[in-house]
Amino acid sequence: MELIKSVFPLKGVVDSRIGGRSENQDGYGFRDTSIGTVIVVCDGMGGLNSGELASISAINYIKDRVVSCADDSGLSNSLCRIIIEANRFIRELKDEDGNPLRAGTTMVMTVIRGSYLNWISVGDSKIYLLRENEIVSLTNEHNYSFLVEKHKDDDGFIFNPSTRPDALVSYLGAPTLQYIDLNAEPLKLINNDVLILCSDGLYKNLNEEQIKVLFLSEKQDMQRFAEMLTTAATIDAAGMSQDNTTVVVLKYLESMF
Q1: What is the mean pLDDT of the chain?
Q2: What angle do CA 86, 200, 63 make, to 5 degrees?
Q3: DSSP codes, 178-212
Q4: Cβ–Cβ < 8 Å for 142, 177
Q5: What is the per-residue pLDDT across 109-161, written as a single tens digit (0 to 9) for each?
Q6: Which residues lie below 8 Å from residue 225, measured CB to CB, with a gap of 6+?
Q7: Cβ-count burial of 148 within 10 angstroms (0-12 exposed, 13-18 middle, 19+ buried)?
Q8: CA separation, residue 10 to residues 4, 32, 79 (Å)
Q9: At a CB cut-off of 8 Å and minimum separation 6, what does 67 contact?
Q10: CB atoms within 10 A of CB 129
Q11: Which of 72, 126, 156, 209 falls between 20 and 30 A from 134, CA-CA?
């Protein structure tokens, strides 16, 4: 458990659990910059080589580049450019012998300045907004099911039944970034809004209604809420550990101005 300290009007906490895996390929990072508080969560892809290295490398690359982002109306375009550059950087990672690693990672990032939120996402990690008694996912899962839905009216699309529905079709380290989610205009936050940035270990074990129920039971204590999320996600009904699970919980408080 780690608290996120910020000069901006946020309270934040991070909790990350290894689950039943041999290593934790999730990663997270945060940084206060002139454009706002930057939070990044990445989930290295277990099906590719060096997932942990990919997630850490992506986070460090993004944190280093984001300080030079354009402000205001140019922020979304600048974030998109950084993510495209990060994709190339991850794709070009090599091992000690100079061989390509074929590494990959998902990525979600938020930039919060004052009461305004910008976000960007590649892959199937997610950003949730909890406002009053409602929950909404701001991002899509860039997997094969998403691809099929996108092409449902495309007569030229050939469905492959052997492809796993959750197989990623866009991620950092891919030959091309097929999908990037971002908000073109900043989202105005209101008092007591809560954001969750998470790897897929959370929502593959807890649906939105279950997340909302936990939130309503612990909405005044973000640290306790984060712990409840990761505990519930990593322990199933039989008491068996599950996937790596990382959550960053951020609460916006107008009274902090």
Answers
A1: 86
A2: 30
A3: ---EE-SSPEEP-TT-EEEEE-HHHHTTS-HHHHH
A4: no
A5: 999 988 999 999 999 999 999 998 899 999 999 999 999 998 888 888 888 88
A6: 214, 215, 218, 219, 249
A7: middle
A8: 9, 11, 21
A9: 31, 33, 34, 35
A10: 17
A11: 72
Instruction: Check if the beta carbon of residue 189 is closer than 8 Å to that of residue 9.
Output: no
Distances in Å between the Cα of 105 and the Cα atoms of 28, 154, 170 are 12, 29, 9
Q: Region of 191 please: left (phi>0), alpha (psi -120 to 50) or beta.
A: beta
User: Residue 182: what are its φ and ψ, rounded to 5°?
Assistant: -160, 160
> How far is residue 145's CA from residue 161's CA, in Å, rounded to a whole number?
11
Helix (H) or strand (E) holding 81: helix 75-91
Which tokens in the block code for residue 123? 């892959």
Report whether 180 contacts 83 (CB < 8 A).
yes
Q: How far apart are CA 33 and CA 85, in angstroms?
A: 20
Amino acid identity for residue 197 in this structure: L
Residue with tokens 């973000």: 222
What does the pLDDT look like over 194-233, one tens digit per residue? 999 999 989 998 999 999 999 998 888 888 999 999 888 8
